[in-house]
Amino acid sequence: SSGINAEYGTNVKFSSDQQSILVSTTDNTVRLIDKTTGQLLNDYTGHTHTKLQLQAAAWHDDSAVISSCEKSRVLVWDLIGAKVQQTLELTSLAQTLAVHPSRYHLLTGSVGGQIQLWTMKGDKKPLKTEEVKSMSSWALPPR
Fold it and tell me: Which of 74, 77, 76 is nearest to 93 (CA)?
């Protein structure tokens, strides 16, 4: 048993190595749980998540945990230390997150139809922003 006393889990996702599960809960916490034993490995706080369905994800190398926030932000925590490494300020709530399978790139899909590509190199602004109604080429930049 993981000992989770959260009111409501809104999203679950496997870590990249498939050995643990990220659980987003409405008590302002993302939890990392061992998939075999159910043991709580770590928890990540500092964001607002009390009523909406928000997503969490892990980098392709499992070095960090990422979650959207009800205050139109995305937070990135160090996987082991659970310290916030980066905060992305969005213009509206990110409803969905997608992590690139081999690069430190993140796509956010926000309320109002914005899709943003973030390079996650400490940048404060997205590399690219598009409105859903005018989706153009979304090729990633060359390595």
Answer: 74
The better pLDDT of the pair 46, 117 is held by 117
Confidence (pTM): 0.79
The region, left, alpha or beta by phi > 0 then psi within -120 to 50, assigned to residue 5 is alpha
Phi-psi region of 91 (alpha: psi -120 to 50; beta: other; left: phi over 0): alpha
Tokens found for residue 132: 């859903």
Q: Render pLDDT for 49-76 as a digit per residue (tens, 0 to 9).
A: 656 667 788 888 999 998 887 777 888 9
Q: Please name the residue ranges forming H helices in 1-143.
A: none
Smallest Cα–Cα separation from 140: which of 107, 91, 94, 96? 107
Please state, in angstroms and rounded to a whole number, the distance separating the CA atoms of residues 128 and 86: 18
Quickly state the pLDDT bin for 135 (edges 50, 70, 90).
Answer: very low
Q: What is the distance between the alpha carbons of residues 99 and 119, in angstroms, rounded to a whole number? A: 10
Q: Which residue has the tokens 């993302």?
A: 30
